[in-house]
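[agent] plan:
  1. take the single chain provided in the ticket
  2. run structure prediction with default settings
  3. attach structure tokens to the ticket
  4. add a short note for the reviewer (M.T.)
[agent] executing step 1
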Amino acid sequence: MAVNVDIVYQTVLLILNQQQRGYMTPDEFNKVATQVQLTIFEGYASDLNQQYRSSQNDTDYGNHIKNIELKLQPFQKYINNTSLVGAITGTNPFTLNIFDYAIPTAPVAGILGDFYRLGSVMYKGAKLHQYSQRNELTQLLLSPLTQPTDDFPVFLYEAGATATPNNGLLYIYPTSITNPDNIDIAYLARPNDPRWAYTIDAGTGAYLYDAGPSVDFQLDTSEQTEIILRILAYAGIIIQDPSIVQMASQAVTAEDNKEKS
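[agent] step 2 finished; step 3 output follows
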């Protein structure tokens, strides 16, 4: 489910227009909305980590871990190189072909246009549990007891390590593993940037909502309140009204504390 971008924008304008506090243009809104969505989206990982350290209940709707995982579920993707030809190329290290992100966008055959963060790496259907950083590899490779094998491989991922800045390199040890068709990955996709598209009324010069090219927020509908509050906080900065910044920031903090308690 998604959050309707027009409802969010009209609500923000309604609040701002109280006592003629100021106005937020569609272009300003679109830039702020993108940042707000990414802030909330990125926060899911830290929220999930925090909830794993807290006791949970078994109710259908009050389990915080399950609720966050459900919010992330639409962005969790799994690909193998036979189903998405060209996503993984090379022999070893393998190149993950992550091309530039556009607004709006969708994955194109052969590329991972919505790649955001690497998750699990599988070799011949088995998950590689050990992720190694480069400074650890020397010790792993030198010791006979820890050297990776075909049955117990390890992997290293370096983003932006290729000529194409957004592409990444996936090293799998031992280096005898060379067939990309045996490599599968799970990754977290980036949400499409929200966009309030418009036409301009010839008579009044007013902005008119155009649903066709508009892009809704891809976050769960339960995030609508926080989206509006966070956009209002930015709007207060744009129109130079500290009272709106303070009000919205306090409301966001209260909302976050309620969800995490």
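[agent] step 4 note for reviewer: The chain has two domains: 5-70+195-260, 75-189.
[agent] ticket updated
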